[in-house]
Specification:
By secondary structure, this protein is mainly β. The protein contains three helices and 25 strands.
């Protein structure tokens, strides 16, 4: 899901500095671990976590995950798998998307509500839609956007399940809506909310529709996945209006999170098929229309339900094993989740 992130290599110039840096046990004491220190298989042993989304924070050198059940944000040490809660508050119910925007020192979080989430309740069902912006370094809450209020009011027919997040070069935020209207929401640089684009004549009421989203900086367009139909869309600005195009690509039913990796390829988590697909992005016209061509694929463990992918410069691309089928089976005590380098698959 999101963007290419950049890690800085920590230079240790003296033996004394080495011991000073390596003796501490706290999660944040080595904020920029060297790429070689990352585990290929990072195991998170946290009961009932069910992380649905992941990104990498280059400022702390840690993965950021959002919990679908606990309604919290946590940090994961890439060297040990140690998990520590970073943010837990009233606004977070079922966390569906996380995005680390280091350039603007903000953490953007999408949250909805679902049966099984610890903070759910009868009054929240299908009625909890928030995009929350936090200070990336401190976790301090900066802004809450509630779409039913900020766009159409509580009683207007806006079906909402905010999910994945992308940010363009100018700092505009885009969010997929997965249930109801097939829409892309936008929060502009002034934090004003709007509906940016829709897939025409198509709504989803009984399954997941639009899901993963990334911003392709080279062509200045969004690439979006649709889970229930296995489709990939591009959304680009043509004559001042967002124009949606279904890319001519064979069905990838169950497609979830998207990422642009360090080579500029599109990486797709396919939870319905237990795999990760890497596809080349080709520009096929002078006005930056694109096509995608499959390059390779990786098989994950069966049943782990890969939902999200993130690329870390000099280290590779990692896929998140959410184990969400166990969540929907109400096995809330499960305590084994993984972030896995796809090259190790």
């Amino acid at each position: 899901m999101k963007k290419i992130v950049f890690t800085r290599i920590l230079l240790l110039t003296t033996l004394g500095m080495f011991f000073a840096c390596s003796s501490a046990d706290e999660l944040d004491t080595n904020p920029n671990p060297s790429p070689s220190a990352f585990l290929d298989v990072i195991t998170i042993q946290e009961e009932g976590l069910f992380p649905e989304s992941v990104d990498f924070d280059e400022t702390s050198g840690q993965f950021i995950v959002g919990s679908f059940r606990k309604g919290e944000i946590g940090k994961v040490n890439p060297q040990t798998g140690e998990y520590k809660t970073f943010i837990n508050g009233y606004d977070l119910h079922a966390v569906t998307g996380v995005y680390t925007d280091e350039k603007r020192n903000r953490l953007i979080v999408a949250t909805s509500d679902i049966e099984g989430a610890i903070k759910t309740g009868p009054s929240y069902k299908a009625n909890w839609d928030r995009i929350v912006i936090y200070n990336l370094k401190t976790g301090e809450k900066q802004k809450v956007i509630r779409y039913r209020l900020d766009i159409g009011g509580w009683y207007k027919s806006i079906s909402l399940f905010p999910n994945d997040i992308a940010v363009d070069d100018d700092g505009n935020i885009f969010i997929t809506n997965s249930i109801g209207a097939m829409s892309i929401y936008k929060i502009d640089k002034d934090l004003k909310a709007s509906i940016y684009a829709k897939i025409p004549n198509d709504n989803v009421t009984d399954s997941f529709g639009l899901n993963g989203i990334v911003y392709h900086s080279k062509t200045k367009q969004l690439i979006v996945s649709r889970t229930n139909a296995g489709k990939i869309y591009s959304i680009r600005n043509v004559n001042g209006k967002p124009t949606t195009l279904a890319l001519n690509y064979h069905s990838v039913e169950g497609v979830d999170g998207l990422e642009i990796d360090s080579e500029g390829d599109l990486v797709m988590a396919i939870n319905g098929q237990s795999k990760v697909i890497v596809a080349r992005i080709d520009v096929v016209s002078p006005n930056d229309a694109i096509s995608i061509v499959r390059k390779k694929e990786y098989a994950t463990e069966l049943g782990v339900f890969p939902t999200s992918v993130v690329s870390v410069k000099n280290k590779g691309t990692f896929v998140l094993y959410s184990n969400l089928p166990l969540f929907f089976q109400k096995d809330y005590t499960h305590n084994d989740f993984k972030i896995v380098n796809i090259e190790s698959l």
